[in-house]
Amino acid sequence: MMMKKITNHIVCLLIYLFIVIVFFFGSQSFSGKNDFLLSQANHIINVEHDKKTTERFNAWEKLIFHSLGKETSEKLKLVNDFFNRMKWSDDKELWNKKDYWATPIESLIRNSGDCEDFSIAKYFTLLAMDIPEEQLRVTYVILDNSQGHMVLFYYPDDHSEPLILDNMRNDILKKSNRPDIKYKFSFNDDGLWLKGNYSSEPDEENIIKKWSEMVERIKQE
Description:
- This protein is α+β, with helices and mostly antiparallel strands.
- It contains eight helices and eight strands.
């Protein structure tokens, strides 16, 4: 997944400042700070990108702001539906790389990605909508046809069965209702969960190296 031209760094910085402020300070404290950031981001997007890209970013901002008071189930549905409208493309076609994990900004600008890009975009968007990080895990699974696939798991509480947000379908089902997938491992910024383990552990073998690389790119945008 490699773009011919690097995405505008100012756009990425402003949008990610927006996400970080929402996540760490909450919607009430953010309400007085968003006007400048979003107006500047929207201005740059309008100048640097076409109308459809601008419309996608505007829709993404509205999705986050207008859903902060909604029930969690509705947030999950809105985010799953929003990103599932993106086109699926493999990394070679989109970025000219064998394996590339795009940031949400990169996916939004291209309006395209593969399964990990869908899951990453949903993860960060739900964080911005006040879903606690400990309830979200990007999860690698194996499909019935033995193909690897990435989805987003949402855990209602510590001991509950996860719900699955999947780019291949719009319904959000419990894991027990998805016999077509087999869990391999999951992760978020807090750690890595291997098959059969109920507590996170260090990623000593760089199983999620691409995740770390993607997070570092976010910090540099």
